[in-house]
User: What shape does this take?
Amino acid sequence: MAWHLSNHIIMKHFKLSLIIISLSFLGTACTKWGEATPNCISVTGQIQKQGVTSYMYGTHIIEDYALRSDIYDLDQFVNEPIVMIEGCFIKGYQNGAVEGGPDYLEVIAIAIQ
Assistant: This one.
């Protein structure tokens, strides 16, 4: 009887642990196409206005990255010789996935060097 009760308690804890682990993976894996991911990098260079391209995303570029930002007006940084941005990769726009274009970053921080 004690063995059966102990097994029952262990199974309840096991099931609860599985539910918690599943929910944590669900929370980290649910980024939609075009949303910024939690994967971020820093890039230093000169921000330039995006011209007409074959891939047609991003408003600006820095080095080999297309940029967008809901926080900053990137036009204000175009004349700066060197800036450092922190940007998060946008899901679906990595490794040339769209028309062979560059990785696409959501700018979340910017500093003039």
Summary: Confidence is low (pLDDT under 50) at residues 13-29. The longest helix spans residues 2-29.
